[in-house]
Amino acid sequence: IDEKMSFPGYIAIIPVLGASLIIASNGNDLVVSKLLSVRPVVFFGLISYPLYLWHWPIYSFYRSIFAGSPDYHELILLLLSSFFLAILTYYLIEKPLRNARNKYITAILLALSVFGTGLIGAFIFHINGVKDREINKSAGEYASVTDVYNYYKYGELLRGGICHSVQLTAAISNGCIKNGKHNIFII
């Protein structure tokens, strides 16, 4: 997997097929059921959702702070941090809430945490975002483009029709560009 691949891309078929095969086995296959019953695999299953929740914010914050992708050592540290926070989340939040005796208090605490998160989001929206955050200059630059043909310096070539690069004369002759009409450029 690298930055040139589309996300999730064809590689996503591997976990989808794997999950489908496990579901299709319906626990009847002794090898699959024994493998999924091993303590480390069960533990990984228990922390998998908190791990899923933590891994991307940690990776994103790293990229925001250090303006780049982590090297292998940093990636291992980020992965270990994700596992650590996932384990803490499981034992300090998920398990106590699941095993709580008073479901009414649990529901109130969860509602308050959702409401508090919403308030924080509304406050950040109200102050127009976090002030110390560096604005993505390229997004602002693209948003201010009014003449895409000159901005991208197409010259004789442009993208006409359905994603086919053609000569300007061919684009006009096949009706991609209408004289006297407003033409729209869609990326």
TrEMBL record:
It comes from the Bacteria. The keyword Acyltransferase applies. GO terms for molecular function: acyltransferase activity. InterPro entries: Acyltransferase_3. Keywords: Acyltransferase, Membrane, Transferase, Transmembrane, Transmembrane helix. This is Acyltransferase. The chain crosses the membrane at residues 6-24, 36-55, 75-93, 105-127. The keyword Acyltransferase applies. One of its GO terms (biological process) is lipopolysaccharide biosynthetic process.
